[in-house]
From TrEMBL:
Residues 369-378 have a biased composition (Low complexity). It comes from the Eukaryota. Residues 1-40, 190-215, 369-390 are annotated as: Disordered. This is 25S rRNA (Uridine(2843)-N(3))-methyltransferase. InterPro entries: Methyltransf_34. Pfam families: Methyltransf_34.
Length: 425
């Protein structure tokens, strides 16, 4: 009987790995561990950190539009841009657009008709669905606001002013969906006023700021919509507007009943549309006053402020200051941006370094600046009077989730965002 040698039968617990060709994978744990199974075993619930609990509670779902009104947005894009039917063929140009977006090269992203159409097919549907639901939510929850009261109570009697500073196509679609959502019964009574021929070309449908619509059309418009964009979205907007205001094409074999019921989404005079190709950051106060007008308006900035700040912080601050001066009392400013959006500024304490600031902190500093301790030009009462009242602050994130019944050959996605709503005092 040989003497037992422990060193010959074991290896150091944390020794060098073996040089043999044997597998180095760790030994799997036993399937049945003591105390882990049996009739008395109850699996413990995973602990939730306070941050996780807060996040789950804070995200509010926004779903205010009927599915048919949301499908209307998608059908309009599908009819206007048939290229969406072969979505795979668009992947190369969509990849180029995405790369330009990631590099924040907005001149390249929105610089050609090919890129604008590709962007509209891929990203505008989700944006338009989100924006339309936010607009419907605001009208539902903010009934005491002056503009909301005017829009809901005077639909069809007096046009409500909306100024969208952003990316043309999605803003137009969202506003039309809002109009259908709130005033569908009144819209159905408008086709008898229709005067534009059915074979009008897309270029004949849209008004530009220098044009003067007839008194009949202006008085019957339910929305006075002014789209403002730095990049030239006029072709995209014109084509979408043509689709919305003309009956969809029918087969030559369509029945008489089908032809009789084939009407446009909205009459051409339901919206008094103006498209402004303008660099808003370099705009003058007079330009903003002309676009907004003298009556309370809804002014929107949908997913655009971060782009503005990336171009110039000082110009964006100046624009918001001019906007404050131009907005009539009772106007609403609706800002929607991506959650966690921030802007890099030079760090005063560390020269050559940058410090990130939340996007909402920057625009609130411009819209509702801290009260000054003294003012030589105004009285203390005037100096303390704020220009805007915050109706909805960034208390938590919100999310739009796609309804299961929506049909679209392109890509759609759920959207998380933050909403800020202010009313001009």
């Amino acid at each position: 009987m040989t003497k037992f040698k422990r060193s010959a039968q074991s290896q150091p617990k944390h020794g060098k790995p073996s040089v043999s060709g044997a597998s180095k994978a760790p030994i799997a744990p036993p399937i049945n561990r003591p105390g882990w199974t049996g009739p008395g075993y109850i699996r413990k619930a995973a602990k939730q950190t306070p941050a996780a609990v807060k996040e789950k509670v804070s995200i509010e779902q926004i779903q205010y539009l009927a599915v048919e009104h949301q499908q209307l947005i998608l059908d309009t894009i599908r009819t206007t841009f048939p290229a969406v039917e072969d979505f795979n063929a668009l992947i190369p140009v969509l990849t180029a657009v995405r790369e330009a977006l990631e590099q924040k090269d907005y001149t390249k992203t929105f610089g050609t008709e090919e890129f604008l159409e590709a962007y509209t097919i891929r990203w505008s549907p989700s944006h338009a669905l989100t924006i339309a639901n936010v607009l419907a939510w605001v009208c539902s929850e903010m009934g005491e606001a002056v503009w909301v009261q005017q829009f809901l109570q005077n639909g069809g009697q007096k046009s409500s002013k909306i100024v969208c500073i952003g990316k043309g196509g999605s803003d137009l679609l969202a506003c039309v969906a809002l109009l259908k959502h709130c005033h569908e019964s009144k819209i159905e009574k408008l086709p008898e006023l229709e005067s534009s021929p059915s074979d009008a070309t897309p270029q004949d449908d849209i008004s530009v700021p220098s044009s003067h619509p007839s008194a009949v059309d202006k008085d019957s418009a339910m929305i006075d919509l002014n789209l403002v964009y730095k990049h030239d979205w006029s072709e995209i907007v014109t084509r979408l507007h043509h689709t919305l205001t003309h009956p969809p094409p029918l087969s030559k074999h369509a029945t008489a009943k089908a032809r009789a019921s084939n009407i446009s989404v909205i009459p051409s005079h339901a919206i008094n549309l103006a498209a402004n190709h303008l660099d808003i950051l370099d705009s003058a106060s007079a330009d903003l006053c002309t676009m907004i007008g003298p009556d309370p308006a809804l002014i929107t900035l949908f997913f655009t402020l971060q782009e503005f700040y990336s171009i110039s912080i000082s110009k964006t601050t100046g624009f918001l200051s001019r906007l404050t001066s131009a907005a009539p009392k009772g106007s609403l400013l609706l800002i929607v941006n991506s959650p966690g959006a921030d802007v890099s500024l030079p760090d005063r304490n560390n020269k050559g370094q940058e410090k990130k600031y939340p996007l909402e902190w920057l625009f609130y500093q411009a819209l509702t600046p801290p009260k000054s301790k003294s003012s030589s030009e105004t009285s203390s009462e005037d100096a303390e009077q704020p220009a805007w009242e915050k109706l909805i602050e960034n208390g938590h994130e919100k999310e739009y989730k796609l309804p299961a019944k929506l049909e679209f050959p392109g890509s759609l996605e759920n959207t998380r965002f933050q909403v800020h709503l202010l009313e001009r005092l």
